[in-house]
């Protein structure tokens, strides 16, 4: 690892991540930015070997940024550094191309160990995330969805983080029609947000 990019809006978290990177990879060059726009400006001029990405950024979603980095630099490793360990954040990030995922509740020694394992070919996952993934794939058969086949397709796509415009394009329907399906999905499932929709998509086995 020669060059890393930290995308994190909290100064204390940035300092923690930078210290861990310097300990894990002595001599590594570390750049820091606090926003999606700042990351895109940096990426337009340079490429990282490793990007540590927070999901909740002031001007956008880190998941979309991961997808952009992987499109531009497929060989760059993108690892999520987040306070969230739930399905609604974990699976869309992995679907976007994240190579690893760890939570900020672990100590620096544990983080350094996770980062060092990258050079050994091991996926950089904090223990809690690794357990969550094992649990997900060991779960029994998912329950049947009460949705129609088309509604199920829409739920799968929004669960993976696609926008209404993208859903419409992929399913060859208008944005207005896609929004109507989402409204019906929310009503049938008793939910009110995309995060809840992602959880339901995972529950029905649509993100596997």
UniProtKB/TrEMBL annotation:
Pfam families referenced in this protein's UniProt entry, alphabetically: GerE, Response_reg
Transferase among keywords: yes
UniProtKB keywords: DNA-binding, Kinase, Phosphoprotein, Transferase
Gene3D superfamilies on file: 3.40.50.2300
Highest taxon of source: Bacteria
Gene Ontology MF terms in the entry: DNA binding; kinase activity
UniProt-listed InterPro entries: CheY-like_superfamily, NreC/VraR/RcsB-like_REC, Sig_transdc_resp-reg_C-effctor, Sig_transdc_resp-reg_receiver, Tscrpt_reg_LuxR_C, WalR-like
Biological processes annotated in GO: phosphorelay signal transduction system; regulation of DNA-templated transcription
Presence of the UniProt keyword Zinc in the record: no
PANTHER family: TWO-COMPONENT RESPONSE REGULATOR
Protein known as: Hisitidine kinase
Organism taxonomic ancestry: Bacteria, Pseudomonadati, Pseudomonadota, Gammaproteobacteria, Chromatiales
